[in-house]
Amino acid sequence: MTASSLKRRSGRERLGLKGPQAALWLGSQGVAVPAAPNTVLIEEPQDLLIARLGTSEFFVEAAAGPTIARLSRSLAEKPPGVFPVLREDWGFDLAGEDVHAVLAQVCNVNFAALAPTSSPVIMTMMVGVAVLVVPQAAGQGRCCYRIWCDPTFGPYLGEALGAVVVESGGISTGVSA
Amino acid sequence: MMFRLDAHPCEWLDRKVKLSFTFEGHEYRGYGGDTISSALAAAGLPFLGRSFKYHRPRGILSFANHDSNVLFQVDGVANVRGDVTPLRDGMRVSAVNTFGGLARDKARMLGAFGRFLPVGFYYKAFHSKTLFPRWERMFRAFTGLGEVSALAERRPTPKRYGFCDVLVIGAGPSGLGAALEAAGAGARVALVDESLRFGGSVAGSIAIASEQQRSLDALLDAAAKSPMIERLPATVAAGYYADHWVALAEPERLTKMRARAVVFASGVIEQPAVFSNNDLPGIMLASGALRLLSRHRVAPGRRVVIVAANLEAYAACLELHAHGVKVAAVIDMRSDVEDDATVASCMTLGVRIVKAHAPYHAVPGAHGAVRALEFAPIDAAGQIHAKAVQRIDCDAVLLSVGWAGAVQLLLQAGATTHYSDAFQQFLPHDLPPGVFAAGRVNGVYDFASRIADGRRAGAMAAAHAGFGATAGDQLAPPIARSRRCPSHRFPIIDHPGAKNFVDFDEDLQVKDLENAAQEGFDSSELMKRYSTVGMGPSQGKHSNLNALRVLARVRGIGVAELGLTTARPMYQPVPMKLLAGRSFLAERRTPIDAEHTASGCVWMPAGNWRRPEYYARAGETRAESIAAEVHAVRTRVGLIDVGTLGKIEIYGPQAGEFLDRVYTGKFSNLRVGMTRYGLMLDEAGVIIDDGVIARLSEESFYFTTTTSGSATVFRELLRMNALWGLDCALVNVTGHRAAFNFAGPASRDLLQALTDTDLAEAAFPFLGVREAPIAGYLARLMRVGFVGELGYEIHVSAGAAAGVWRALVAAGRDHGLRPFGVEAQRLLRLEKGHLIVSQDTDGLTDPIQANAMWAVSMQKPFFVGQRSLKILQSRAPRQLLVGVEIDASAPLPKECHLVIDQGNIAGRITSIARSATLGKSIGLALLSPELAKPGCQLSIRVDGGAIAHARVVPTPFYDPKNLRQKAAGAP
After folding, report:
1. Which residues are registered as beta bridge partners of B650?
2. Between vectors from CA B816 to CA B814 and to CA B822, what angle results, nearest 5°?
3. Does B729 touch chain A (CB under 8 A)?
4. What is this model's ipTM?
């Protein structure tokens, strides 16, 4: 296990939606939604991630395949009270034994203090970029963090995080444009 | 003169590691574990630095990073602190603030002119305007410490955030006690100390009771083993900020530590006695001498005199004796000395103890270091009897006359202090929630009591952070403060020859402070600012208290009535590299950034984006490339990435009404499939943004903002919708969509080849919007006219951007397509007279001044800024935005060059360029209304003061009837 590693999340598709009926609509599409604002549900084994951003906005990510396509087609029919949010985010996975030491250099959120069972979604700033962060518990106490950002900040975020990871003795792969 | 002793188990040296370095061009040697100062001291150098003002020779004073006597230039780095910087092999060290080297410093003669350089002399001299530049140059050359090279290699250092439950500042006995108690209660503790090793002032002593040493060792061992304690040695708590946020400066890293509670076990700082020539090399603080002795085995001298006013002096005497250093005498300023075992032990050793005497004058030797001390009787009133002066030969004088609490960080934390006459020390008085004090800074001096006080504070801090049981009243600790007073009330001796220094950093003598008070600067704050006492690198650690004593004497009041000056970060000077750290300058790139690089673009910053300024071609200059890009758009087709524009979607039954409120125009009546220009104002009627609004359906719109305004505008729109509660939702897709402008007479035909959607004029008129596939990718097309030609803004998802861009480039390759950049676009829109918000408008420009009232529907019930605009309509405008044409023979003005009318400023140029298309130089200008009429002649002052003549002309300059952008037919 390396001290820390950063890689770009590939092979994933994303969808965003918001509106007063968004939660109900997702339910009608067979997608379970987190009950509380700023929390996340990850459905294995298809690795379908549903993040609730605030009360009525959702960010959905799944492996490239039929799930996102199906939801997109349904959303295109303009269900009442549900509005699409185009999501072309860049995603990264940050993991390893030293992940908290890396995060401490780039973000003022105390990630180490988060309980791994609480399933939070954290919207914060990292190296000057607004990011979405979902922590995931990995085996043996190590943590993996999924990080998303606006695609126009993607190359910079990858380079900046990657530089810190490498300087800390870790590995950064595939993070540039 | 100092010298190295043999090895001892207490030392911090590794004598197997032999280091060599140069100082002032000469080679010296040291050991692993040495600091720069300790190695130089061991070499017996008579002095190591020169003072700031008089360039007097100076040596080690505190050996604790608390004074600036030993600042060095090391390998190109300025102001390195010699006392605490580890020696490295090959170091090149030199003194700072010298002219011609340390030994033969040319400025050493300044001391002879001291009477002409009293405190504040620079406020009273140098009033001649003619001569002032010369004085200024002289002062710039003379002042400052160290040299900063603009060519020095940048060495970024990391910064990090830290989190803990309890932060303990100071790792002496009380700090260790606090940390262990808090950790034991379950709190995560960060323990910091500026020293390389924990243990505080007691560590390393070989003369103190072995029981104390064992207690200390047990504390150190427990702290090292505790998984709940993060230990940070060689770390200075440099500043305290709100909510227990503390800046921790390590040698190569800054930690921004957020704690829930903070224990200040920061200890005390030994204070010097003030007497004539008290700054000579060889005169140092006793605690510093002991640190130098125990850690680095450097003896302060071969014949030492101790100036005493407390028991610590006698402990120092025993320590020196235990290390084999001879103490010639203890000169005690008190008549009543404690009946204590340490005193008795000194007497048993045969040390000469002289009571009720004070140091009067230090006698310098050939190299400037002390060679003798004159001392005289001092009576109960503090009067010195100079006629009874005695003299004792010595090569070192150690000062042990008292302490000042290290309370600056406590004050920054919002604590108050009060001056204890019984203690002669400022002690913590009121502490804010979450702040605790322990140990000597809290007035607890006894060793066992310091540990107990630390444990008390640690328990209370942990309880405050939510760990352990609730503790009692923090203002009345159960640990009693020491009964004995460890500090002399007034260790300041007058001398007719002066040179009795209060502030070593600033070369301030007693008379300087008295003069400041007599001139009316008689409060602690005023005296500080007029005399600069406490404003040097030491920040008053050795001078503030004595300065207050002097001022109190002048005013005939007590020190308590004066109070300390306001404490502000940084407590210790922090290298700028730590504050700067690594640069995180977030840069945005459009999705086709790589395409631009491959096309040979020259990048430019545009806010936090990078954009192509132009595309370089072999054989073309910059100007030629830009001109060629403009020509391509005017005659064939060009393609520009406008993906930096803000892009916002709005949905909902009241989306149109929302837009009616935030823009000056009417959009609720905009037909589906059409666009309209939008102007956005603030409440004062000032233009803050503009864009294009497209209606995609009855309940959905898509609109753009300026590049620089996208984040601010979106935030403001969210705020306004939160206030109004309209039934609509806003989505910011700025970064998730790419956008291009495909413009030129050939654009329609070329684009038609990439889509099945009918682009003919009848099907897709000017200002229309369509959703259509382009090269297989779904796009939003808007017919807009920013550059004044037939053209299409093409908006696609970021993932589709590269594919669409390549398809457009391929489509235009055989038709003379050129990608064009920001510079060409700016010229193209200028030829059309289109304004750019924040370039052609300023913080006061309203639509009336900008000649943009055509975009305003005043008859709407409400829009932001409407009320102000109504008022402005009833007044004459202050300025008007107009087009200008520069005389052909005139030099080309620049943006912001002023228009001058009868000697007054009458306006300024906002945009200017040479237009090859029009064959003339054109621009936009904000002018006073009298000059803003077509045909008016203008005088524009350019660089160097020359005048360029111009005249006001109507806009647009190019295609005045706007036929080309409407393009009813192909050219």
Report:
1. B701, B730
2. 135
3. yes
4. 0.95
DSSP B667: -
* Smallest CA–CA distance from A102 into chain B, residue: B160
Mean pLDDT of B322-335: 94
How many angstroms separate the CA of residue B843 from the nearest CA in chain A? 27
Q: Dig out the tokens for B179 from the structure.
A: 């940390």
Q: What is the largest CA-CA distance in chain A?
A: 51
Q: DSSP letter string over B791-832?
A: EEEEEEEGGGHHHHHHHHHHHHGGGT-EE--HHHHHHHHHHT
Q: What gap in Å lies between CA B81 and CA B70, rounded to an integer? A: 6
* Of B158, B115, B437, B610, residue with least CA distance to A168: B158
Each residue's pLDDT tens digit, B929-957: 999 999 999 999 999 999 999 999 999 99
Q: Suggest the residue from B161, B583, B592, B658 to mutate for an interface test with chain A (most A CBs closer than 10 A).
A: B161
| Nearest chain A CA: its distance from B608 CA (Å) | 10
pLDDT digits (tens, 9 = 90+) for B527-573: 999 999 999 999 999 999 999 999 999 999 999 999 899 999 998 88
Distance from C-alpha of B185 to C-alpha of B665, rounded to nearest angstrom: 65
Provide the mean pLDDT of chain B. Answer: 93
The whole-number pLDDT of residue B480 equals 74
Long-range contacts of B687-690 (CB under 8 A, 24+ apart): B687/B837, B687/B841, B687/B845, B687/B846, B687/B847, B687/B850, B687/B852, B688/B713, B688/B837, B689/B713, B689/B837, B690/B837
Global pTM reads: 0.88
How many beta-carbon pairs below 8 A join chains A and B?
86
Q: Is the pLDDT of residue A142 over 80?
A: no
Residues B879 and B849 sit within 8 Å (Cβ to Cβ): yes
Q: Look up residue A110 and give its amino acid.
A: N
Instruction: Please tell me whether residue B162 adopts helix, strand or coil conformation.
Output: strand
